[in-house]
């Protein structure tokens, strides 16, 4: 019972991060963009703050949206060679590729964290938002991607260990 509730709570948190935050940041970004166009071209009085909101909103939307794309397997893939391999060779190729990306993200996590925390003392020009808040979604993106890659790697290893599952075609 506790495990079921914990999994449901985790899924709600993941949905907030991957669906609701990017949706809200996109709406805010798009609204600021339209407002800037209106003020610039219709009132001939450009505003300075919508540009920052648009840039920050785009970053949050792209990073959190990329996590959702990873969940759904919606990233662009170039599979010309991959599609012509046997399921076992595809499995090995996925394992190697996911492992390399995962290791790279793990290695890059602390330097990214360190730099983002360093940015705490710098603020945006117009809205004076500390840059560590602006760039923090990158850390969440790295962590979320690492977790999803580890899940994929564990699943592929379990398929590799069981010869009866070697012909399983896994689309991710």
Question: Which tags fit this structure?
Answer:
single chain, mainly alpha, 172 residues, 0% strand
Write a structural description.
With 172 residues, the chain is an all-alpha fold. It is 74% helix and 0% strand. The chain has helices at 2-42, 49-72, 87-118, 131-161. α2 (49-72) runs parallel beside α4 and α3 (87-118) packs antiparallel against α4 (131-161). The protein is elongated. The protein starts with a helix and ends in an 11-residue tail after the last helix. The model has no long low-confidence stretch (mean pLDDT 89).
In short, what is this structure?
The chain is 74% helix and 0% strand.
Could you say which structural class the secondary elements and strand pairing correspond to?
mainly alpha
Query: Largest sheet at a glance?
Result: none
Structure summary, number of beta strands: 0
Mean pLDDT: 89
Shape: elongated
From the N-terminal CA to the C-terminal CA, the straight-line distance is: 30 Å
Strand coverage percent: under 5%
Q: Give me the strand/helix succession.
A: HHHH
Rg calc: 21 Å
Low-confidence stretches: none
The share of residues in helices is: over 70%
What count of helical segments does DSSP give? 4
Q: From the structure provided, what is the oligomeric state, counting identical versus distinct chains? A: single chain
């Amino acid at each position: 019972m506790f495990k079921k509730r914990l999994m449901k709570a985790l899924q709600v948190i993941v949905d907030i991060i991957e669906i609701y935050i990017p949706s809200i940041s996109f709406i805010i970004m798009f609204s600021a963009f339209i407002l800037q166009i209106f003020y610039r071209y219709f009132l001939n009085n450009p505003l300075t703050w919508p540009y920052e909101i648009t840039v920050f909103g785009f970053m949050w939307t792209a990073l959190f949206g990329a996590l959702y794309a990873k969940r759904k397997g919606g990233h662009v893939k170039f599979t010309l060679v991959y599609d012509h391999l046997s399921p076992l060779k595809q499995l090995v190729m996925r394992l190697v590729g996911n492992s390399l990306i995962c290791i790279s993200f793990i290695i890059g996590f602390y330097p990214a964290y360190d730099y983002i925390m360093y940015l705490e003392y710098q603020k945006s020009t117009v809205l004076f938002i500390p840059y560590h808040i602006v760039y923090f979604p990158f850390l969440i993106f790295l962590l979320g991607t690492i977790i999803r890659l580890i899940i994929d790697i564990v699943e592929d290893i379990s398929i590799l260990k069981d010869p009866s599952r070697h012909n399983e075609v896994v689309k991710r």
